[in-house]
Amino acid sequence: MNPSHAQPDIFPGGSSRHPPGPSSGIDNEIRRILLLYTDPYYVVKQVYPFGLDLLARFLRRYGYHVTIAYPFLPDPDPGKNLGYILKNTRPDLVGLGIRNLDTCMSCERHGDTGDETYRTFYFLPKIQNLVHRIKTAAPGVPIVAGGGGFTVAPGALLDMLEIEYGVAGEGETPLLQFVRAYPDNERIHAIPGLICRSNGTHATHPRGTYRFEEGTSPFTRDPGFNYALETMGLPIQTKRGCNQQCSYCVEPIIEGKRFVFRKLEEIIRELKWVVTTHADVQSIFFVDTEFNVPDLTFCTQLIKRIIHEGLHEQLCFTSQFLPRPFDAEFAALLATAGFSVILTGDSFSDAVLKKNQISYREADLIRTIELCETQAIPCTVAMIFGLPGETDDTIGHSLSQINRYPAGFLRRYEYTVGGRIYQGTPLCRWVEREGSGTHLYGNQSSGYVAPYYFCSPKHPAALNRDIERGLGHGVAYENPFDDDARTALALIFMMDQKEVDRVMETFLTSPLGACARSFDYLFRKLSNGGRTSEAKTLCRHFLNALMSVEPTPQILEQIQMVQFYLGLMDA
Ligand code: B12
Ligand code: SF4
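^ thats the input. predicted complex w/ cobalamin below
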């Protein structure tokens, strides 16, 4: 019997008692934990595996050896990467981090799933392959799934992936409890938030109350994903939850309808930690559902503290915001603190907003757009066309407002077409009530895990063509899995994973496009890391490659830059 199973209680997170983990000397079957980031879209948009990072930090506190790994890089073959990861980590447990099921977008030119009405990226088939490979290469090792995407449809995902355990919602405490209880079924079945599948049925245990780990452990970010921190912003959460009911949205399901706030002191302490430890990080992404809900009190206090501490002189900030609540005083504070705003501004039509239970109205959206303009705050308005209630007239109205407040230096528009139907959302309930048929595209599957959209008044591809005509241009999401971009990212990833020899070997045989995209980052990391000899080799190889092609102004500029770097190192 596993001696740790003799423990009568299960420690909640943040317990002040020292918990018996492997570090306490008590034998425990699970010691090495592999947390696998299963997001294929990282290859296109490098979003840091923040959820897994919090889990790793928490479990390490209890003495477990935890590795976060990414199977879609550096080799184009995930099977090869996964084989390498499993061999190196020899895990006793694999945690599958499922952040996204798909991209939520129905008109992706380069998407891998769809028909003549929609096209998108659907990630689950790739995740299924990973699970299959894990089971073959590491038979008997328990697999526990979790993450925002998983929480949307836990039962259906366990079935689809043919695994037994998952965690809905926040994973720190349930995963610790699982690790300590496994394989004792009785104890496993008592874990809040855990969902277990056996013989085709699911046993779900209500989620426990979440609380942030405050002041208990040092902050960390995994250096193996450093590039994500420098490009997409370093994620920090100030609270969890959303009390709104926007018809299409899964976030109240993922984070809960009630807010759990962090202590301001802790957020400031974390920001100061970023400044002292991450010199190359310029931007913080507050990954809250919306930064300015439920009202302006908490976020205003935070921004004032940021300014008071002078943190705005070292960092800039981004987050998602609702158009209401948002006033002139708040906008002025955001501007002083150096915020960029991603505005959840689904539609300019009050009829559509109302029908979709969205709390703000056109007047709020316009006022916030104007306030951002007055305060010179960079603002991206994120819209959705085709939600219930959308007609040619409402679309025409939204397009005319976009043209009235056009995209420019500080203002951008992004839009998606159709509302992705996810299990448990008001939109899903509405579709189920109304019955199948009109305005539904994609595949209705168990748990709504496969891409499935509501789109009115016509199918997504046709509606998108209308919108592009109305705007006079497309708002294209350029996200092809481009070969050069992929190779460049693989090089960068290897550098973050400290595989310098492999970086050098691959760089010297990579096409110019990949070298050009990765050179800056690689050179910076090599020279800052004291690897001058490798930095010089990198420069010389890149210079030779640049000199062997047609000398366009851009190539000449790059040649000058590399010569400048070489000069500095030779001086
Ligand atoms: C902030 C955010 C962004 C930011 C990220 C910025 C940054 N620098 O990190 C931006 C705007 C860039 C972004 C981009 C995208 N996003 Co986004 N994003 C979010 C948001 C609001 C928060 C994510 C977050 O970091 N949360 C904080 C972390 C700590 O929480 P967590 O991930 O939930 O982790 C906890 C638990 O889930 C659990 N857990 C996590 N992993 C695991 C693993 C195991 C084994 C266990 C047991 C538990 C567990 O424990 C963690 C700690 O408690 C979520 C919605 C939400 N509220 O979750 C959407 C969300 C995840 N995004 C979504 C989407 C669709 C995207 C994009 C695909 C959009 C697009 N088309 O480009 C891209 C994907 C990019 C990528 N490569 O992943 C969807 C995914 C839905 C789906 N289809 O599955 C969500 C749910 C939003 C929505 N309303 O639909 N996103
Ligand atoms: S869209 Fe924003 S405000 Fe609406 S439910 Fe989702 S997270 Fe909350």
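Confidence is low (pLDDT under 50) at residues 1-21, 23-28.
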